[in-house]
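Sequence, please.
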């Protein structure tokens, strides 16, 4: 039996008394990548914020056994402090959550930069001095600093061009495999999800309208909205 990292049961989420998400239920197992797909405004980011405890107005159950789940954001530039160097940004979670001294923190930063295939000299640069692809690698690195078991990736490649997208997806695959990460991968693009995910949840208007393994969703969709999403990518 698979070990659950996250289980969501009958989740209803509200914002300003308006219901945004309706009866959401799913689970993520250890080492599994689950894709959450839907058009802009369907509630994907609201779900991510609720899972991380940012959005607190909800009913239902969220059972996350992973310690300190982390998030990779869509726009790496706005999620990185432009006034601080990369080394400082990556050290900050270690300062707040570990007993590492300065030398240990620096060593950890260098190890993690190498893990996301960046030169360690980038620690001395500001975010504005990096390319979009490099900034997204730093954002991934930041999410991994505390070795979380579970990561939510919110449209992490949508702001990148196709070539860089492919490189970042390959990196995420490698990191997920090597570190046995569990991921909730949010996207509007089923082609991207097909490359990375084990299972897929299709969201429309705040509800999950179809779910299943990736091959099943991609080649034998049952819901008309899922078929529409697939047709729009062909």
């Amino acid at each position: 039996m698979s070990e659950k990292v996250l289980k969501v049961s009958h989740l209803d989420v509200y914002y300003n008394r308006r219901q945004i998400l309706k009866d959401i239920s799913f689970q993520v197992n250890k080492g599994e990548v689950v894709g959450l797909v839907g058009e802009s405004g369907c509630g994907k980011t609201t779900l991510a914020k609720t899972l991380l405890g940012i959005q607190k107005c909800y009913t239902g159950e969220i059972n996350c056994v992973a310690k300190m789940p982390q998030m990779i954001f869509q726009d790496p530039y706005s999620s990185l402090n432009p006034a601080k160097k990369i080394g400082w940004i990556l050290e900050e979670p270690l300062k707040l959550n570990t007993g590492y001294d300065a030398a240990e923190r620096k060593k950890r930063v260098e190890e993690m930069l190498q893990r996301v295939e960046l030169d360690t000299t980038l620690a001395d640069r500001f975010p504005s001095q990096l390319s979009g692809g490099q900034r997204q690698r730093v954002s991934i690195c930041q999410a991994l600093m505390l070795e979380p078991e579970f990561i939510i990736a919110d449209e992490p490649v949508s702001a990148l061009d196709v070539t860089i997208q492919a490189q970042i997806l390959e990196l995420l695959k490698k990191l997920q495999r090597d570190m046995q990460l569990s991921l909730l991968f949010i996207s509007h693009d089923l082609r991207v999800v097909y490359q990375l995910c084990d299972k897929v949840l299709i969201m429309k208007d705040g509800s999950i309208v179809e779910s299943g393994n990736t091959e099943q969703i991609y080649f034998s969709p049952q819901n008309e909205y899922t078929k529409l999403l697939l047709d729009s990518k062909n």
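The mean pLDDT is 92.
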